[in-house]
């Protein structure tokens, strides 16, 4: 499997991500976000509140990072955030669980979509059989006093 496809497949495994933005004072802000959709080209969609701090942050600096973590899988995406006001896309993405944040439902005027256009991504996958192979390599390296070798099966950096 090529590294680009592997990264996209890993992205689709996550339902929550940390969206990292830069605020007006230059500080870094990270907040958990429900992943609304990951497209086959790696674009990530979030649903947010129009007047939220993250929307203010991306209006000043649209370069963002998105990180995802599970027990043995890690993904980091760098890219550009685009606020999108598109009711038909919102209809496509809508999940009833979001009524917790938007009690008026998908017709709420507070809702705004946030599309992340990735430019670069990295992953570390130590799950399943791949993880077992890595553990064997790591154990052997440990006994030999060396660092374990890695390959694109377990980790890679990908230009999107």
TrEMBL record:
InterPro entries: Split_barrel_FMN-bd, Stress-Dev_Protein, YdaG_split_barrel_FMN-bd. Residues 3-148 form the General stress protein FMN-binding split barrel domain. It holds the Pfam family Pyrid_ox_like. This is Pyridoxamine 5'-phosphate oxidase.
């Amino acid at each position: 499997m090529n590294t680009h496809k592997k990264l996209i497949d890993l992205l689709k495994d996550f339902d929550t991500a940390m969206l990292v933005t830069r605020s007006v004072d230059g500080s870094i802000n990270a907040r958990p976000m429900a992943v609304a959709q990951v497209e086959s080209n790696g674009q990530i969609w979030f649903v947010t509140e129009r007047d939220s701090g993250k929307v203010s942050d991306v209006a000043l600096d649209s370069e963002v990072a998105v990180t995802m973590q599970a027990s043995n899988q890690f993904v980091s995406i760098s890219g550009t955030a685009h606020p999108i006001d598109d009711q038909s896309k919102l209809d496509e993405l809508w999940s009833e669980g979001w009524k917790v944040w938007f009690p008026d439902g998908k017709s709420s005027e507070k809702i705004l979509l946030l599309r992340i256009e990735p430019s670069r991504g990295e992953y570390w996958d130590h799950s399943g059989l791949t993880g077992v192979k890595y553990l064997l390599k790591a154990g052997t390296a440990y006994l030999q006093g060396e660092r374990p070798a890695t390959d694109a099966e377990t980790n890679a950096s990908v230009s999107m």
